[in-house]
Input
Amino acid sequence: MSSAKIPETQTSCESSVCCDVPSPVELTNPLLAVASPRSTLWRISTMDCASEEGEIRRALEPIAGIRSLSFQLRARTLAIDADDAALQPALEAIRKAGFSPQPVADGTRQTSADNAAGDQSHAEHDHHDHDHSSESGSGWSEVTRYFAALAFAVAAEALSYFAPDTIPWKATGMLLAAVAIGLAGLSTYSKGFGALRHGRLNINALMTVAVTGAFLIGQWPEAAMVMALYAIAELIEARSVDRARNAIKSLMALAPEESDVKQADGSYARMLSSAVPLAALVRVKPGERIPLDGVIVSGNSAINQAPVTGESIPVDKQPGDTVFAGTINETATLELKITAVASNSTLARIIHAVEQAQGTRAPTQRFVDRFAAIYTPAVFALALAVALLTPWLLGWTWTLAAYKALVLLVIACPCALVISTPVTVVSALAAAARRGILIKGGTYLEAARNLKAIALDKTGTVTEGKPKLVAFEMLTESHSREATATLAHSLAAQSDHPVSKAVAAGLEATSQTVETFTAIAGRGVSGIIDGEQYWLGNHRLIEERGICSPAIEAKLQEHERQGRTVTLLATDKAVIALLAVADTIKASSKQAVAELIALGVTPVMLTGDNAATASTVAGLAGIKDARGNLLPEDKLKAIQEMQRQYGATAMTGDGINDAPALAQADIGFAMGGAGTDTAMEAADIAVMNDDLRRIPETIRLSKRTHAILWQNITLALGIKVVFMGLALFGNATMWMAVFADMGASLLVVFNGLRLLRTPELSRKSLH
Output
C-alpha cells in the first residue's frame, strides 16, 4: 500500500509539536468514526494529542494492507482496518515509534449508528478514563489538580521572595515546587522523556527540558510556576477548542434516539432509531424531530428542514413527499415509511461528509506544518547556541545563558501556529454545514475564494427543473375559455408525458370522460369527448392534420424564442387553443447571479437545451454568456475553454450527467444534495437544497476563512518574535514566556471560532 492511501487528517503535524488540535474523530460522531466493522480497536495510553497521531500515521505509511485508521484522541484509542497480514507489522511499527498499543475488549466496532447506545457508552467511558484517572493515577479531576499545583507554586514563589535565604526555608520551597511540578506535570514528563528517547522534539520534550533545567539551576519557584501555568493554559485551550468540536457533534443530536414504530396489530412501540428496519412505518407527532429518512404515507404538515438544507422557511409536505432525518415536524402527525436505515440517512451522510472534509488539510495548513517542521528544531538549536556560546561571545554567566536558553525553549513551542489553521478550517466547515453547504475539505474551502468563473447548468440549477404551464391562449371563439380548459385538462390528465402533466397541473379545471384515448408517439394524444374528436399535441401533429396556418406559425415562433414548449388543442377542423409550457427560473437565481458578478465571478450557462431556450433563461437570470445544444463532452470542452480564458472555474451540476465537466472544473458544486448519494459523492461541494445563492455564500466564507487563517499566522509568529527578542536582550521570564505562548494559542483559537458565531453567510456579514 502506498502512503497516499492512508487517510490524512487535519491533526497530523509534521512539526511533532503537541497541541490539543481537534481530530476528525473528536469533532464528529464517534459512531461514524471507525472506517469498517473489520476494524480492531487499540488503546494507546500516551497518545492524546495531534502530533502523536501524526507520528503514528507516518510510522504506518510504508505498510501495505492498511485500509483506514480512525483515532479517538480524547479516548486514547486507535481503530485499525487492515488485512490480517498487515495488522502485526502495523502494531510493531507503532511500538518502534515509541507507543504501546493495547487491545481493547470487544475491539471491533461498527461505522454507523447500528449499535448507538453501546458505542456511545463506550466512548463516554473512554473519555471519563482519560479526563479523570489516566494521567496521574489519582482520583483528582484535572481542574482540582492543576489549581492545587498553582497554589503550591505560588507558595514556593512566596517563600523564595519573602523567607530568609537559609537551608530549611530553601528546602521547604524546593519541596513545594516539586509537589507543584508533580501535580501538574507528571503526564508531561512521562511523554516528554518518551519523546526525547525517540528523538522527537514536541512540546512535552521542550517543557520537560525547560522545567528540569530551571529547577537544576536554582530557579525552582519559576519552574513550578511554569508547569502549573502551562497545565492550566492547556486545559483552558482544550475547553476552547471543544467549541469547534461540539459544533460538528451537535449534528448527531438532530435525530432522536428512539422512534414510534407501528406494530402488526396497529399499535406503536418505542424502539431505538438505529434498529428500525427499512420499510417500517414510523409515527412523528407535531413538534418532534423526524428520526429517519422516509416517505410520508399519511398526514400533511409543514417541515422545518433548516437543520439539513439550511432553508429558513418550513416546507409543506404531503403523502408521497420525502422527509429527512433531523428535520422538525411542525403542525400535524405524520406516518412515514422508512427509506434509509440510521447509518445511511441523509444526516449520517452529512456527518460522514464533514468528517471526510476534515481528513484533508488546507493549503495554508500544509504550509504551516512544513514551516513548523523547520521552525521547532531551528529554535531548539538557537537555544542550545545561546546556552553554550553567549558566555564566550557576550560575557554572560553560564547560569544566565542557561536561563535565557530555557526561556527560548518555552517560547519555541509553535502550538499557536499549528493549532490556528485546523480550528479555523473546522469552524468554517461547521458554519457552512449549518447552512446546508457541505464542503469536502479545506482545499476546496480555500480554493473557492480564487474562482473567476462558474458554469451553471440550466435545469434544476437556474430553473426549477419542472415544466409549468406559463401561457394559455384562445385561438377561436367556437369554445369558451372554461370549456376549452376542461377539454385540454381531460386529455392531458390521461397522459404520463411531462408536458401533458404540466398542462393538467396548470389548468384549474375538472375532467370529462375521454373515449377512445390514443397516445401518438412523438406528436401528442387524441380522444373523443361528448362525441367529438379532439387532438392535443405539438406542431408536427397539427401540420399532419392539415389545420396549421401562418398566424399559428407566427405564434409558435414567438413562444419558442422564449424557450417554451407549445402544445395545441384542436378539433378535426381548427386549432382551438395554444398552451405553452416552460421550465421556470427560480426566484433566487437572479439574486445569486448578481452576487456572483459582484464577487468578480463570471457566470456562464451550459445546457443541453436548444440555444433559444438557453438564451432566454440566461437573460432572465442576468447571465450574458449562454451556450446551448451541449453534450457532456461539449460541456467538458467548455470548462477547459473557460479555464484558459478566466482562470479558476467552478461547475454546477446534478453529479450524474455532468461528471466529466465536474471532474475537469477546479471546484464541482452539486445542487440538491439532500437525499442524493450520487450528488454528494460526485462533487467537491454539495448544496443540500437547490438554492443557487449558497454558491456566493461559499465564496464569501472562503474569503473570510483565508483572512482569519493569515491573521492567526501573523498573530502567532508576531508574538513569538517579540518574546524571543525580550528573552535574548530584555527581561522576559519563563512564566512570562508561558503566558505569551498560551495567550497566543487562545487568541488564535478564539479568532478562528468567530466563524461559528456568524448567523448568516450574508453579503453584509462576509463581504
